[in-house]
Amino acid sequence: MSARVKIWLLPALLYGAFFFWYTPTGGPLSDAEVDDFIAKMEQNGGASEAMAMIRQFGEEDTGKHFIMINNIDYNESPGDVAGAAPGENAQQLMDRYMGHMIPAMLSRGSHPVMLGPAAYRSMDVIGIEGVDVWDMGGLVRYRSRRDFLEIVTDPAFSGKHHFKAAALEKTIAFPVEPDFNLGDPRLLLGLLILSLTALADARHSSQRG
């Protein structure tokens, strides 16, 4: 195997492994899988409304990845919360929740895409009241509905979710399946690897010349 082949082969294999891991390949959830997730929610003491929503979410699975759009308004006075130190503020409580969520997401090809403070109040509100003020906005990518449901039906999630509930005054979160996303890591990493490999190949060729 020539040196030039090696220069291109290793990055290609690494990128291929990442692409396969990051891309949902399991297809839509089966009815049996949905039933299993609902059974886990029942064991965790899930509310009937939440289980009905999760069942529909699972039954309508397309097999694609999705991004959860989050609008966040923190609770200015969350009070003392079980499992947290007395007097912890909303951000500290949210940090406890995310301390569980981040490892659970990263291990499943899921991760935050964007998070930042609100720059101004809501500028276009139609047909809904009480949503003028927000503290934060965020986008979170999930590799699949299967990965999302594995996270939220884990008993460990039930033990942490109350931190999030206490930290928030109000929130709106809904999933979107992107048709177009220039920030997709598969695109960005592919371009980066291609550029670096081309530079390495050019340098190797010039040294030989």
Question: What does this molecule look like?
Answer:
The chain is built from eight helices and four strands. The chain has one domain: Alpha-Beta Plaits, CATH 3.30.70.100. The mean pLDDT is 94. The protein is 50% helix and 15% strand. Strands 2-3-1-4 form a four-stranded antiparallel beta sheet. The chain is α+β, with helices and mostly antiparallel strands and 209 residues long. The longest helix is centred in the last third of the chain and has 24 residues. Helix 1 packs antiparallel against helix 8, helix 2 packs antiparallel against helix 3 and helix 4 packs antiparallel against helix 7.
Compile the SSE list and pairings.
Layout (H helix, E strand, L loop, with lengths): L2 H20 L8 H13 L4 H12 L6 E9 L15 H17 L4 E7 L18 E7 L2 H8 L2 H4 L2 H7 E9 L8 H24 L1
Antiparallel strand pairs: 1-3, 1-4, 2-3
Helix pairs in contact: 1-8, 2-3, 4-7
